[in-house]
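Lesson 9: reading folded outputs for more than one chain in a single document. The general rule is that every protein is listed as its sequence immediately followed by its structure tokens, and records are never interleaved. Here is the first one.
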Amino acid sequence: MRVVLLRGAFCVVAVWLLLLWHFGLRDDAAAAPTVTPTSFDGDAGFGSLPELLPAADGLWQPPRGGAASARGIVLILHACTHSARDFWKRAPECPRCTGLAEEVALRRAIVAAGFGVVAFSSANRQSGCWAGRAEIPAAQNALAAARSRMPSARRVIALGVSSGGAMAAELAAAGLVDGAILGVAVLPPRLRTAALPPLLFHFMA
């Protein structure tokens, strides 16, 4: 298990660098795009995942070069009291989306860097928190739906904050992802001696 620790502000511009350099995508680094505010519509092309239950709010978005160009897929996992709809602004494709500023910026940075994004909401809509291993089947369905739309994607990374970070670790332990980024989260005790793929921990300063 390779572990990287970071402190400081959650710099969304650096997210794609972390994905490239810590999860085996170094060969693609030279092709990393230069992103300017006018060069890319970070909200283009997203849609729902009808394969998932309606309450799961399944959403996906291809990278800036289109679905066929995806270097990998990033599964973004929200924190407690939140949902997948926070990562996209309200639009005809998602009339119930809320589009929170930091979540939207994070998702835009990922797709601008050439990675596809998939998200779904936790089953508990009262607390918004994740239920760990009980939600692995839903994650499998979401990733299968994303892969069917972006078959060229080489790797899958889980990125979660707080409760979502703990869920990302569960997916890593289950072998569903090639690595995980845990924001403001720690490994569940039973996973601390488990064989895991590369993990990156980020703690706010």
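And here is the second record, again sequence then tokens.
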Amino acid sequence: MFAHDETFGMDGADNTAQHPKYNISIPMLPDPQQRDFRNHLAVFEGRISWMYLDDAVPGNVTAGIGHMIPTGVAAVMVFGPESTAIDWLAVKAASPGMAASAYAHLTTCRLSPEAIDALCDADTADCWARLLRSVPTLPGYPPGVQQALLDLEYDPGVTKFPKMLHAMEVGDWATAARESLRPQLAKSRNDYTAQLILSAQEPVIS
């Protein structure tokens, strides 16, 4: 789950962007990688057009592809004027631990497929900017490792994995994969993230 911080706009033809919060120029994710990551997230987070309570972090109001909505004001910013803070409060007060579909009747506001994609892409852009601050060597890592780090930054943030980051720095991919475990998430997601990291290993020639 990810709470969107601040988006940033394209600088131009050099495929970089200026992030207003961090005041740095950063490389943008290539479109195919952006799309692949969005599809990857959707497998594990789902694509939900209404507000619901996240089952991994009970009590967190969420929508889209794992986008956390922390306040009623944030809900209006995400859904537009058709939503109100009362909608958010109705979901927030509901019983946690149910399937996302169980919360659909509480609100009438919905996100379009295009809005879901745009929201996820904005969250991914924030993740990428934060990653470049935390992991300056990120652009030099293989695409699989970059995607794993994006997923870890999306939930719960790579700074929570110092042993993993150190193992990556020295090229110990097996240790990095083991240290990427997130006990609060499903085994399938942990296994997939570990495999992305292990994809950086040189093949063993017998």
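What the second record shows: The radius of gyration is 18 Å.
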